[in-house]
Every structure is written in structure tokens, then in C-alpha cells.
Amino acid sequence: MTDETSTSTDDAVSTQDQPADVSTARTDSTVSAGDEPTDDRAVVLASGGMDSATAAYVARERGFEDLYLLHTSYGQNTEEREYECARALADHLDAADFLHVETGHLAAIGASSLTDDDIAVDDADVDGDEIPTSYVPFRNANLLAMAVSYAEANDCTAVFIGAHSEDFSGYPDCRPAFFDAFQEVVEVGTKPETTISIEAPFVESSKTDIARRGLELGVPYEDTWSCYRENEPACGTCDACAFRLQAFQRLGERDPIPYESRPKYTD
């Protein structure tokens, strides 16, 4: 995962606005092919990475025509490159709005190699099941809280997040149970007439599944970034690079972004 010195949320830059409606956390595995959204506005948590970009294209495919992209810079190592990619995604999708929020509290809290220069980013361990140093404590709850505020203010009926199954083996805030619990928080903590669904379409999918779906949907992966260490070229050896490269290698496709090295992560 890639996503974070005093508590500030100043630099919120927006382009358009509008509001939303839908309930119960849904994933691709629980939504039938005939399901139709009750409205056409959704917020997408756009990290700048390939998972959230693919989630945005899935949202569009499901019928959400007006996409409101929320990108957060919180002091992460590659925040400049991630912002560029999130902004590019908004342009590709002709998003209804792009909101950039800068906040320092996650970096001030620390305890993650993504935000603390004193903690090294681990080399890749694609088979590990320990919580990695790149875990940002309770980050997704922070991001989802902002996204739900954004959604309620603009009458959006859903919030999309690109978390997937290989994330929740190491990140507790990527587990299906977390999204189910957060759905309850949304229902209790918003206006009675507000209905917002937390959508995690890849929560039961692998990185390879996401890459395959994204290639089918024409996601511009050349304008996405996953590396935990570098703004460019990607290192090729952190967990995020490894899972990404492995996905493309399994599909027999070349990842279109530049790498310092491209180790082989398939047998």
C-alpha cells in the first residue's frame, strides 16, 4: 500500500461539487451482473496507484457517470508522484471533481516506513504474512472518513476504495470485516436521509485479478504509481513494486512504468 506534521487539512483544492445515496458494503463477489446504481455520483479514493485507478474504472462501468476523486497527501515518500498520477486519472475520466487534501497528522503520528525517514522500507516479501513496516496505523479509517464527508456533501451514493485480498494479509484496515464495520459507522454517523455504500470491489481479488480487469477496461497504467521508495524510476524491489510486477508478469504483459530494476517474481 502506498498512502500521509501537525494536524492540518488546509490545501484542499476542488473543481466541482455535487451530493449521494446507497447502503451496505458491496464487493464484486456480492454484486450480481444486473445490479444498477440508484444514482450516478460516487467518490473514489484515488491514491495514484493501479488499484484505485482500476476501482475508478469499475465505478464508471457500474454506471457512476459523475466521479468525485479524492487524493490525500499525508507525508508519504512518493507523494509528489502519487499526486501527479491521481490528477492524471481525474483527467482521463473527465471527473466531475478532483479534491486534493494535504494533511500532516499521519506523518506526525509516524510508526510507518512510508512517512518516517528513520524507518527503512522493507525489501519485498511476497509470501510474508506479517504486518509490514509500510503499514500506516489506521490510515484507511482516516481516508474513508474524509471520503464519506466528501460524498455526503456532494450527494454521492458510494465511496470506492481499491483495497484487495493481498493487502489484508498484512494490513488490518484492508480486511472485509473492517469495511463492513465502517459501513455501520457511515449509517449511524450521517444524516437520516443519507445512504452511502462503501465499495471495495477487489477485496476478494488478487493484484493479478486487478491488473487483468484493468487491462480489459483500458486503465492507463502508465499514469499510475505503486513504489514505496522512489518518485521515479520505481525501485522494483519494495513490496508494492513486487506485487505489481508479479501481476503483469503472470499476465505476460510489460508494466508500462519505468523501473530501476525488474526482478522476476514468477516461477
Query: What is the CATH architecture assignment of the domain at 28-207?
Result: 3-Layer(aba) Sandwich
Mean pLDDT reading: 87
Rg over alpha carbons? 17 Å
The total of beta strands comes to 5
What's the SSE blueprint?
Layout: E1 41-45, H1 50-61, E2 66-73, H2 79-93, E3 97-102, H3 105-109, H4 139-153, E4 158-160, H5 165-168, H6 176-189, E5 197-199, H7 207-217, H8 239-250
Parallel strand pairs: 1-2, 1-4, 2-3, 4-5
Helix pairs in contact: 1-7, 7-8
Report what the structure shows.
The chain has helices at about 50-60, 80-95, 105-110, 140-155, 165-170, 175-190, 205-215, 240-250; strands at about 40-45, 65-75, 95-100, 160, 195-200. Strands 3-2-1-4-5 form a five-stranded parallel sheet, sandwiched between helices. Helix 1 (about 50-60) links the parallel strand 1 and strand 2. The protein is an alpha/beta fold. The longest helix is centred in the first third of the chain and has 15 residues, at about 80-95. Helix content is about 35%, strand content about 10%. The chain has a domain at about 30-205: Rossmann fold (3-Layer(aba) Sandwich). It has eight helices and five strands; from the N terminus they run E-H-E-H-E-H-H-E-H-H-E-H-H.
Features of this protein?
267 residues, 5 strands, Rossmann fold, five-stranded parallel beta sheet, single chain, 9% strand, alpha/beta
